[in-house]
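User: Assemble these into one structure.

Assistant: Restating your components, then the assembled model:
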Amino acid sequence: MELTGEYRIAAPRQQVWEALNDAEVLQACIPGCQELEKTSDTEMLAKVTLKIGPVKATFGGEVELVNIDAPKSYTIQGEGKGGIAGFAKGSADVVLAEDGDDTILTYNASAEVGGKLAQLGNRLIQSTARKLAAAFFDNFHERLNQSTPEDA
Amino acid sequence: MTTGIGNPVKRKEDRRFTTGRGRYTDDVRNDNQAYAAFVRSPHAHARVKSIDTKAALAMEGVIDVLNGKQLTGDGIGNLICGWAISSKDGSPMNMGAWSALATEKVRYVGDAVAVVIAETQALARIAAEAVEVDYETLPVAASLTAAMAKGAPQIHDNAPGNLIYDWGLGDEAAADAGLKAAKHVTTLDLTNNRLSPNPMEPRSAVASYDAAEEHYTLYTTSQNPHVARLVLSAFYNVAPEHKLRVIAPDVGGGFGSKIYIYPEEITCLWASMKTNRSVKWTSDRSEAFLTDMHGRDHVTTAQMGFDENGKITGFKVDTIANLGAYMSLFSSSVPTYLYAPLMSGQYDIQNIYCNVRAVYTNTVPVDAYRGAGRPEAAYLVERMMETAARELNMDPAELRRRNFVQSFPHQTPVLMAYDAGDFPKLLDMAQKSADVAGFPARKAEAAKRGKLRGLGYSTFIEACGLAPSKAAGSLGAGVGLWESAEVRVNPVGSIEVLTGSHSHGQGHETTFAQIVAERFDIPVENVSIVHGDTDKVQFGMGTYGSRSAPVGMSAVVKAMDKVEAKVKKIAAHALEASEDDLVIEGGAVKVKGTDKQMLWHEVGLAAYTAHNLPDGMEPGLKETAFFDPVNFSFPSGAFICEVEVDPDTGVTEIVQFVAADDFGTIINPMIVEGQVHGGVAQGIGQAMMEQVVYDDNGQLLTGSYMDYTMPRAADLPFYKVSHQVTPSPNNPLGVKGCGEAGAIGAPPAVINAITDAIGNNHLNMPATAHAVWQAIRAGKSAMAAE
Amino acid sequence: MTKVSMNVNGKKVSRDVPDETLLSDFLREKLRLTGTHVGCDTSQCGACVVHVNGKAVKSCTTLAVSLEGAEVTTIEGLANGKELHPMQVAFNDNHGLQCGFCTPGMIMTSVDMVARYKAEGRKLTSDLIRQELEGNICRCTGYHNIVKSIEDASAKM
Ligand code: FES
Ligand code: FES
């Protein structure tokens, strides 16, 4: 499943980039994120609670930043295990472009779920993932606390 | 009302079911009951790197957590497929190892890796969540296309290219020549959709171990408890056969899915010994979707040639069958010997060749589901006939008539020797019942209402009463296909029949009693049927393949023959008459033309008191018989389905469904009709609603009744059922078997009707409203392009 | 744990149960009334239907503790002693069951259905019966004889 989106953020690119690499910021922005602990410059351990359809589960897993081209782009990828609920995997290519004083953030994400999540929640996954992605970037954008999104 | 053969005797078993007193496996609860929950893989293909059970074991109420290494370490064997199929080149099939609990690799979502045994079911499930399994995921081949692609992930090391076998039946050169000589050749590409059997009672097992006796007892949802015991002991090494009792109490439907031995039964038995507790596992519906064997799942390309008179000149079939991640107990036989030998249908076809390749995929195993192989064959042959008729501009009934087999026995080029039938008459009966003559008027009337009306035929054959053992053995079957019976006349004259057949909805407690009541002319209430318990009943083969009547009942008849012979000897001795002058009627053994008689119960008593038996006769009145038929029985049917399609939405309504069947002798018409209703409903379900879907990663997307469409009351019509009787010469009652006909014959009738209505022959099952709507659109644009 | 008391098939029962206990579990496991069946886990098959205060409910989606003081009737309590309810007789007369697994739920649903239509003075046609069976799945009978059974009983109730 593929998801894409674009946001205009009223902050300079460097500032946006730093925020995107700040575990604290990420934890605050990732919906349902209970813990996010940095284990290296590019690796984190996360605990996220999600509800998809009738299945609610807490996922523990690793988040990793790869393909880093500071301050222009990276790929954030993660894989979480939710016990009997199954697993979720995802990655997003995030690109930051300068536009005057603003920054244009575009993302291209893909996600995959398995186990009970897929069996029972399948019909709702697309919409849930869309909502989660929107929530993350909304939160992120709000946190940088300027203008409104152009395209959500 | 009389209660003998041919009477619609009301079912004796109903009282317990309608009052909630049926006893199903999950209703069993032993004193020291513990509960099992399985830890299952969420990945379709992965290596199991480690299993961490610490957290689960630490939970209060958890008795033990067991894994596959322990299981194989205790010598429990792998699951096997019991029918050996060889490829065309003579090589044996590539059977991959299947452990009840996966040790190194998991191969489908739901593959079990560990089991938690706990004090309550809820606890077991919670603890199963706490078991941490570390997987290394592998590339997945979830579909036939993916599994057969170049460089596809290898599911079993010993099956290169995921190919299990490449098998053929018939004469390829003859079929090619027949096609070459044809005036017209019809080509068809078909998919037979993947189905989940869904008996309403989920699978369940309750295993206990008696350490003092070193004896196991297993209650299980099985269609054939003796075969279960044999396989559990001989192949899986769970317990020696004489130390294992298998009981299949009331079973809530099977449809094939409860024939096989599953990992859960093996694991529960073993775990009961490990934990010294009675271990119970009951599947929930989500687990059933993930782990009950699925049915069908074929892709086929076929050609049929016709001469200028519409006579078939040749038939060539190429099928690929998806068997899932492992080879289940009878899986190999379904797309081969239960499929290809039916390719002649009701038709006289001289040149047939059928090639079948079976393939592994990362999905749950596929095995027999109601009809098993025969629905796939009927669907292909009957879709072919209808398609050809359309291409040849012929009436589809007429094309069939020109090709019907006319005399019996009839030897086909694909093994089968048809025993009896009258196909033209059966079709007449169906056409009359369906008022085919009035169809054009009904179509015109529907058109006025803006509806598309269509009519579709299916005139099909099936092979039932799986047999004979010798022939089956020569084709690779691992077991004999006979049946056993013991008839016990008690000293008071009441009768117990012990049968190796198993009833899980078929009403044997009534129909088996009927044949006994008829034979000895005693009330049906005085006959009871015992089945489903290996400690009570002699070895038997169980119920599948519509075999209980043709094979199971025949064994009862043979045993009754022996009982009758002894009864007559006893009575002749006591009455000082000749055996030849005796008749059994009205509850007595009578001397013809006199008023001398011995009441039935007096004979029973005499046999057991043994005060006045002929010299040398053993006391008692109990006989055993085994019946091994000389041939299959061949029920035939003519189904006609009429539909109305809303062209704007694709919504299709079945406005009439006619089923005319030839089941040979009918013991109880009420029960036979019920079997037809249920079978047709499942056939309509396959044709219009049901479909198992896996995504590319092998995740099951149709895992509940929210996504897998089960036919409900409002989806289905009333059925018009009628019968013709041409008795089978191959068993003493002349019966043929009726359990599967509906599921075999209905799908092509439905699809033929819908494609007739919409004027586009390209339509796959399930023909949901969406699919029909798309086919209407595609048909229109194809026409516009012409 | 919560103590819950109710009347089941005319008998007063009380048990301490965890709050999340479903009525189906309560009946099957605590009271050992195993006539009520569980055929699914998404509330869609109707094998578990019982009557609560005279109305059909799916016991697999009802919490036992929510039924303090309720009148519950299960399939075991439908007959009047030895005398079967007309619906039970009709299912036998019309061969409305095969494996019997869906039957308790079917019968309990049907009794409620007929009673409702009678109370409202509406006629119960075979089409309406089929619609009313929306929440009950039977895999064996193809519904033909179930619909006939209900029509039959409806004339006698
Ligand atoms: S068990 Fe209650 S609806 Fe299926
Ligand atoms: S009788 Fe078997 S499910 Fe209805």
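Chain A touches chain B through 14 residues (CB under 8 Å).
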